[in-house]
Amino acid sequence: MGAFIEGSLAEAKFIGDDIFPKTLLPSAGSNRNLAKSVIAERESLIAALRRHRALLFRGFDVASVDDFERAVEAFEWEAYEIVPGSTTRVKLSERIYTANEASVDLFINFHHEMSLRKPMPSKIIFCCSEPSPEKGETSIVASDEIIEKMEERMPEFMAKIAEVGLIHGSITGSDADAGTHTVLNQSWKSFLGTDDEVEAEKRARKSHFSEKLNFFSNGSAEFVYGPLNPVFEHEGKRAWHIPIHGYTDNINMATNKFGDGSAFPSEVFGIYEQLLEENCIDIKWQKGDVLLLDNLVVQHARRPGKPPRRLLASICK
Predict the structure, then answer these.
(1) Are 74 and 172 within one domain?
(2) For the TauD/TfdA-like domain, which residue ranges apply (predicted)?
(3) Is 243 in contact with 198 (CB distance < 8 Å)?
(4) Nearest CA to 111 among 235, 227, 234, 280?
(5) Range of the domain at 91
(6) In CATH, what number is assigned to the domain containing residue 249?
(7) CA 299 to CA 282: how far, in whole Å?
(8) How does pLDDT run across 185-197, given as a tens digit for each residue?
């Protein structure tokens, strides 16, 4: 890749023979225009993403929303339409949004972006507009590695999941959460654009893999998914696509049971979270960094930080 040289990242790790993530810097004598460099090396970059799961571009001149958008468009992936969801994003341009408007001191759990939507997006690209002065890292983990570890640590659980599947419930924010800076700050009414429960269920089945909705008096609702197999395969790599622990530290925002209705073993959640923490890496942001993730095989999370922390995001089909 003539426009790039491989950099080193202290936090990076090897998964087999492949570095995760692969860090790319401007080559000597090349311009620092990321969009032009991507255009010149597009096919080799796509191949590198397929192999390494994540690419970190560092040291390029990505100083504005326009710079970032041009770099995103250089890959020629179709934009993923972002519709109202359970969290708040601000649209900054045709393809660029703020990553999440939740207060920066809140942890956001590991997840594949919009994994419960139809269709699930294949790529997510972040750009650091302003790093947190303290902490605030984005954590990434290879979902296929997590599945291997789960099979080692919990073989009976994984065998039963493969046999009967999983029923997962994801609970939206309540009416009182609307407009706050919590992680899940949208009720089902704003989420689905209707206050009619029958219409809401129709829209949920169309836009999500949800089979039904359970409505609560505080204005929240539970999206019920499954029974389904939470393990998906993409180009030879398996991934755990269901956020069984939810998106926040509040364990009451997610429910789980086996597809036959029986309860999960109590130790599953602790082991799952332990495996995520043991196998993830924390990306310590620098201003202008661009991080490209294969969303089908990589989960990401947000560590608590301090303002001002500003990350931009673009999502691709």
Answers:
(1) no
(2) 40-312
(3) no
(4) 280
(5) 4-135+284-316
(6) 3.60.130.10
(7) 12
(8) 788 998 898 999 9
| Cβ pair 80, 121 in contact under 8 A | yes
Q: Identify whether residues 46 and 111 lie together within a single domain.
A: yes
How far is CA 17 from each of CA 7, 13, 22, 93, 193, rounded to the nearest angstrom?
16, 10, 12, 38, 47
Same domain, 148 and 272: yes
Which residue shows structure tokens 């836009």? Answer: 207
How many domains does one find in the chain? Answer: 2
Q: Is the pLDDT of residue 164 over 90?
A: yes
Which residue bears the tokens 């990589």? 298
β-partners of residue 252 are none
Region for 136 from its dihedrals, namely left if φ exceeds 0, alpha if ψ lies in -120 to 50, beta otherwise: left
- Same domain for 130 and 147? no
pTM exceeds 0.90 for this model = yes
Amino acid at 214: N
